[in-house]
Structures are given as structure tokens and as C-alpha cells.
Amino acid sequence: MSAAGNFHVAIIMDGNGRWAQRRGMPRSAGHAQGAKSVRRVVEASVRAGVRTLTLYAFSADNWGRPSPEVDALLRLLQCYLASETRRCLRNSVRINVIGRRDRLPASLVRAIEQSERATAHCTRMRLRIAVDYSSKHSIVEAARRAASGGLSAQSFESLLAEVDHSVAEVGPVDLLIRTGGEQRLSDFLLWDCAYAELYFTDALWPDFGEAGLHAALEDFSNRHRRFGKVLAETA
Ligand code: IPE
Ligand code: IPE
Ligand code: MG
């Protein structure tokens, strides 16, 4: 795969609920299993040389789920940050939670800030976890802050990063993976995926793992990215 420079992988981690339901378990059990998959895929990404990994953990629309499920998801996230921050430090992974913070429980916001502070010096990989994230909201909010025109795409990107609490210049998404069989973006990184290669797999997120990541990277390595130009060999 192309581990070059700024390689950015984003993943829509879908299918936890179905994974649990197929086993006669509650959906929350699928989310707990999904968290284990996050750990495996984060570590596999570090080993594969991914520079930035952005994971969709909780969308702004996920607030519409039954409140016990929402509570379970937010609790899991807090547990993840508590248990994985040390592991990320060991692997030199910088944690950054992107998305809105004004609707999250205060204890979760504190946990986020703590993990971000503790790993701020880590340079091997950036792990961005999208929580209460909506691309459309980010774009509208950045546009509102931009207000009176004269704005380049680059400065708009900086505003988007500011809205999202994104701490580093991460660049556009190179490879967008969605597990769980659906082929849609569900309001994730609409701006950043302008030229992303899209990879959809039927694997449910808890089953994805290191092998799933490698299959996606292998597929990516066979793509021909043109960015609106013509390939050198056909020019
Ligand atoms: C993805 O799994 C996790 C979140 C959206 C938080 P789902 O919970 O959407 O699982 P399915 O799609 O219902 O199987
Ligand atoms: C997208 O999955 C959000 C996350 C993976 C966090 P959803 O399951 O919420 O998306 P839809 O409803 O199928 O579009
Ligand atoms: Mg889903």
C-alpha cells in the first residue's frame, strides 16, 4: 500500500447492532465487541504506516437512537479513552476527538481533553475519533464563521478543523472504508472525501480486524487516482 507521507484512512465502523442481533445478544454487546475491533484496527494501522486514522464512532444523528443505546455508546467511549490512552502513548499515537462537544456529558469532555493532552506529543499516527459528528453541521458552522467572503479553500479547511476541534493539519482522506454492507456516507467527512477512494465491505465492524484492514489497503494499492487529470502513461 501507499504508506507515503500523509496517508489518511477514514472508517465508518458500521454493523455492531447486526453482529449482536445475529447472536441473540443486545445491540450494546455489539458495541462492546466493536470497541475491541477498534483497538485491533488502530494497532494494525500503526504497523501499516497509516499516518492519520479517522474513525466514525457516533454521528450527530445517532442521538436519535433509544437513550439506553446512546448512554451505552457514550460510556463505552469514555472507557475506551480511559483504557487506551496509555496504549496509544506506548505506540506514539496522538488522540484527537473531532465533532461537537457542547452536547456531550461533562465527564466525557474531561476524558477527551485528558487523552488529547496526554498524547499531544505523539507523532507516529494521529487517531481521530468522530463523536457527535456531522459534516453538514461542520460545513455550515465554518461558513458562518467565515461570514464575509474572500475565503480560499485552504482557509475554509482551517475553519472546518477549528469547528471540529481537529488539532492537526491532517489533509484529505485517501481511503474511506465502510463496513456493514451499506454504501453511503451518512454525513461523514463530506468535504475531506472529495477525492477519497471508497471501499465498502459486507464484514460487520466487530469482524473486520487486521485482515479486513489489509484487504482494504491492498485494494487501495490497485486504484488509479487521477484527481481530474489524465494518467501520465495515457497523456
Ligand atoms: C455502528 O453500528 C456503530 C454506531 C453507529 C454507533 P450500528 O449500531 O449502526 O450497527 P447496525 O448498522 O445497526 O448493525
Ligand atoms: C454511521 O452509521 C455512523 C457511525 C458508524 C458512527 P449509522 O448506522 O448510524 O448510519 P445509517 O443510519 O445506516 O446511515
Ligand atoms: Mg448502522
H/E element sequence: EHHEHEHEHHEEH
Profile the largest sheet. Answer: 6 strands, parallel
Strand order of the largest sheet: 3-4-2-1-5-6
* Secondary structure tally: strands: 6
Q: Count up the helices.
A: 7
Query: What would you call the shape?
Result: globular
**Uncertain segments:** none
Q: Tell me what portion of residues adopts beta-strand conformation.
A: 15-25%
Give the mean pLDDT. Answer: 95
Q: Indicate the percent of residues in helices.
A: 40-55%
Count of domain modules: 1
How does this model look, in words?
The protein is α/β, with parallel strands linked by helices and 235 residues long. It has a single domain, classed as Decaprenyl diphosphate synthase-like (Undecaprenyl pyrophosphate synthetase, 3-Layer(aba) Sandwich). It is built from 7 helices and 6 strands; from the N terminus they run βααβαβαβααββα. Strand 3 (93-98), helix 4 (106-118) and strand 4 (125-133) form a beta-alpha-beta unit. Helix 2 (27-48) packs parallel to helix 3 (67-90) and helix 2 runs parallel beside helix 7 (205-221). The longest helix is centred in the middle third of the chain and has 24 residues, at 67-90. The chain binds 3-methylbut-3-enyl trihydrogen diphosphate (2 copies) and magnesium ion (MG). Residues 14, 180 line the site of magnesium ion.
